[in-house]
Amino acid sequence: MASSSQLEKDAENKEAPKRVARGRAKAADPKALEGFLIRPDPEDPRLTQAVTGIDQDGQPVETAVVVERPLTLFLNGQEIVTMMTIGDHPEYLAVGYLLNQNMLHADDEIEAVDVDDDLDIAVVRTRRQTDYEEKLKKKIRTSGCAQGTVFGDLMEKFEEVKLPEEAVLKTSWLYELTRKINTAPSLYLNAGAIHGCVLCQGDRPLIYMEDVGRHNAVDKIAGYMFLKGLSPDDKIFYTTGRLTSEMVIKTVQMGIPILISRSGFTAWGVELARQANLTLIGRAKGKRFLALAGESRIVFDRDPGSVEEEDQRHARKSAQRKD
Predict the structure, then answer these.
(1) How many domains in the chain?
(2) Which helix (H) or strand (E) holds 176?
(3) How many CB atoms lie within 10 A of CB 319?
(4) Which of 2, 141, 253, 287 is the S-S candidate for 307 at Cβ 3.0 to 4.6 Å?
(5) 305 phi, psi to nearest 5 deg
(6) Is residue 292 part of a domain?
(7) For the domain that residue 261 is a member of, what is the CATH number?
(8) Does 123 have pLDDT greater than 50?
(9) Do residues 146 and 216 make contact, with C-beta atoms less than 8 angstroms apart?
(10) CA of 201: how far to CAs of 35, 52, 101, 115, 237, in Å?
C-alpha cells in the first residue's frame, strides 16, 4: 500500500488525516439478494439524509434526499478529475472511469486502488507509467447528469470493438429483468434523484449500481467487471437513463452486446448502435419495448399479452408519460 506521504503528494499538499484504504468490495450472498451479487442498499445511512420542509398543502413533511460528495481521482501521481458521487464503491468507480476514458488499457496491471474517505480521493496505481497531460486538455461537455465531461477521443476504440454475434436476448428474459429490477429495493424508490444501471445475464440481474449521474453508475459496473475478470460476451446492460451516444459508446467499449433502457433514444445513439451492431432497446416498461438496432439477436419466446403492466407504485419518472 502507498504511504501517507504519497497520498499527501497526490492531494497536492492538502492536510492529510489518517488514511483509510478500502479493498475490493465483497460480493453479497446471491440467495440473500434474490439473485443479485450487488444491489443498492437504501438503508445505508451514508447515502441519504432526512430533510424537513412543507408539502403542497403547507403541511410539514420530512423526506429522504440523496447525499452527494466529491471524489477526486488520481491515476498514479496525476490528478484526473473530481466527480460528484454518492460515495459507495469508489474503487469500482475509479477504475471504470479510467477504462471508459481510455486511460486504462485492457491488459493494464493495477497494483493498488487506494481510497481515502477523509481526503475524498481515490488513487489508482498501475505498473505501466502513465501521462495524460495532453489528453486532459481536450475536454468535451456531454449530456450526462452530474458527470458531464469526457477527455476527447470519444471514438478512440469504438470502431475496433467486435460485439459477439451469437449473443441473444429472449423476450421472456427482458420482461423478467424489467420486473426484478423495477421492484428491487433501491435508493431511487426511497429518495429519487438518482440513476441506476444493472449488469445482467439471461433473466438474472447481477450487479446493480446507482449514482447521481448515470455515467457514474456505468463506470462502477465497468470497474467491477475489470477487477473481477467478468466476460462481457453473454451479458446484458440495463439503464434507467436515456440511450445517448455516450451510453452507447461506453456499452460498446465494455464489449457488452445488448443495451436496454426504460427511457428513449437520441438519433446519434441509434446511429452508433447500428454501426457497432449493438442491440438497442428503449422504452422498456411493462409489456412494451422498442428495438432500433441489432434486432437479429431478439428471440420472441413470450406473448406480450401474458405480461402484466407495470405497477405504478414502482414507476419511475420516465414511466409516467407515454413515449
Answers:
(1) 1
(2) helix 171-183
(3) 19
(4) 287
(5) -65, -20
(6) yes
(7) 3.40.140.10
(8) yes
(9) yes
(10) 11, 41, 25, 30, 9
Asked, for residue 207, whether it belongs to a domain, the answer is yes
Query: What CA–CA distance (Å, rounded) separates 246 from 144?
Result: 8
Max distance between CA atoms of the chain, in angstroms, equals 63
- Average pLDDT, integer, range 221-244: 96
Per-residue pLDDT tens for 257-283? 999 999 999 999 999 999 999 999 999
Q: Give me the percent of the chain exceeding a pLDDT of 70.
A: 80
User: Distances in Å between the alpha carbon of 153 and those of 128, 203, 214, 246, 247?
Assistant: 21, 35, 20, 12, 15
At 137, the pLDDT band (50, 70, 90 cuts) reads: low
Beta bridge mates, 298: 169
Within 10 A of 196 (CB to CB), how many other CB atoms are there? 24
Model pTM greater than 0.70? yes
Cell numbers standing for residue 228: 473481477
233: which 3 cell numbers?
460476451
